Amino acid sequence: MTGKRARVPAAVLLIAPSLVVMTALFAWPLVVGVGQAFSGPDGPTLGYVRRMLDDPYFWPAVRNTGLLIVVLIPIQFAFALTMALLLRERPRLAGLHFYVWVIPLAISDLAAGLVWLSVFADRGYLNSVLDHLGVDGYAWLSYQNTTTMFLAVVVAELWRSTSLVLVIVVAGLQGIPKDYDEAAAVFGATYWQRLRHVVLPQLRPSLQVALILRTILALETFAVAQALTGRSLPLLVGETYQWYNVLQNPNVATAIALVVLAVSMLAAAGYLRLLRDRTAAR
Amino acid sequence: MRRRRWQRAAVQAACVAITLFMGVPLYLIALAALSSRASLNRFPLPLLPTEPSTETMSTFLRSTGVTGGFLNSLTVGLGTVVLALLVGVPAGYAVARYAFRGRDTYQLFLLLTRALPIVVLSVPLARIFLDAGLYDTTYAVMLLHTALALPTTVLITAAIFVGVSHEQEEAAMIFGASPVQAFLRVVAPQALPGIAAAAMFAFMLSWNEVLGATVLTLNQRTLPAQVLTTLADSPLAYRFAGGLALVLPALVFIAVMRRYLLNMWGTTLR
Fold it and tell me: Which residues belong to any copy of the ABC transmembrane type-1 domain (chain B) (predicted)?
């Protein structure tokens, strides 16, 4: 009994430093940030928020960020699921394939942007290949070609960030007992029926985690677009960077950052609610 | 039977296609960064390493701020590892071993902090560090990266300590070891590979983080921050060389960490 009582303070002692560090570096900046965004030299003000809303780059940045999430995430999840299911078939050289597929886990978004810049640049590798094939090149990243510019960012992000979803899905698949799947196969279910009614429902917790994480991270996409397009394709976090580093206005920068935070929290709460409701209804 | 064979072939082909999609860009950035300036100016670009040259790479390494940025990245990365482990390992141990009140709340708090966008922290932190006289130092970036790496460090180390047998630790204590001795002699050796993995994770996070490092520094840029802030006025060759310099550690990292990846990003996230 005495032993148990002595343990509680030990545990608290052990986690205390981490609590202190995280409060100091997460909670405090949040409070300061709200202050920066909503108070000026003469007390509370909405001036910075208004300046943010009036900026000609703000709404395009909101639209592009939203569009990126809506386009990227469904493709990305389909891609990651395909990869995980392919690995489940135990192809030859599975280890090598898996290694190459997860390399981007450790590649920063800036580096990914630079990698794809070598492909999409006007005199880059894609146009070189086209030239070898006798096709005229195309200005993929020109500000006049908004669609291809956007698609280049989507491809680069797909390349870089799908590995995160893949790893979560593969780990999830490993945790599923094979019995159900085999039983369904014995009773004559086709591959697609088993996928739809046996595997995917059991993968739901993993997919839920991946979905929340990826949505939040996609909201923060910035350096890829910066490396590929500069400010031609404004994104929300890129605008924070612009306001802070180039326009030297930390107040408006924080206001935009708080928008990103609010949307992240809304998205996370929304997903949790949506996915829980469905489970409850079953 | 023939259908089965056909399916196997299709699976193999799909795997190869995906590997090409993931691998070819890496080949291309290496090719670009290891070409001479003259051959980068040619069009169409050669697709095979016909004239390998270290010219582009060495010009990049000699540019202003690159060596300094490299050293700063290294300092910040190692500092982040030390701080994150010092603070995170004890917490991970507590989460794994003790059923204390508020443990679930604590774990939820960890998950929540992972969801905070870096950008929300960086700009106010710049103000705080300005007041504290830490702005534009490697310490400022180190602290930010520690905060970012800490939740994952705690979750990973907790998962590792759960896997180390508690009985052996208790046996050591019955034979007269103090809790600290039991930890150092019995638990630490078994947990070491996992802790090394957590350390590499923290280093990689720090090496790759660009926005916070850019916001918190002016002269003490880390390598990615240096590359980002000079992006607009630098020639393509510089950008390609910077790309390769940032990508190379990733290849090594994944090769070393392959065993731990699923644990790290997969299971501990829940």
Answer: 70-257
> Count of domains in chain B?
2
Q: Which of B38, B62, B86 is the last residue of a domain?
A: B62
Q: List, by residue range, all CATH 1.10.3720.10 domains of chain A.
A: 58-281
Q: Determine contact: B19 vs chain A, CB below 8 A.
A: yes
Q: Which residues of chain A from 185 to 244 reach within 8 Å of chain B, CB to CB? A: 205-206, 209, 212-213, 216, 219-220, 222-223, 226-227, 230, 237, 240-241, 244
The stretch B207-226 carries a mean pLDDT of 91
- Bridge partners, B35 (sequence order): B52
Question: Which value, to the nearest 10 degrees, does the dihedral of the CA atoms of residues A216, A219, A221, A225 take?
Answer: 160
Q: Examine the pLDDT at B269 and tell me if it is beyond 80.
A: no
CB spacing of A25 vs B123 below 8 angstroms: no
For A131-171, the pLDDT digits (tens) are 989 888 888 888 888 899 999 999 999 999 999 899 889 88
Does A114 sit within 8 Å of B29, measured CB to CB?
yes
The CATH superfamily label for domain A58-281 reads MetI-like (1.10.3720.10)
The backbone torsions φ and ψ at residue B214, rounded to the nearest 5 degrees and listed phi first, read -70, -40
CB pair distance less than 8 Å for B261 and A167: yes
Chain A residues near residue B14 by CB distance under 8 angstroms: 82, 86
The secondary element (H helix, E strand) that includes residue A36 is helix A28-38
Residues 163 to 182 of B: which have CB under 8 A from any A CB? 179
Q: Are residues B153 and B256 in the same domain?
A: yes
pTM of the predicted structure, to 2 decimals = 0.88
pLDDT at A17 over 60: yes
The residues near B70 (Cβ < 8 Å, ≥ 6 apart) are: B223, B245
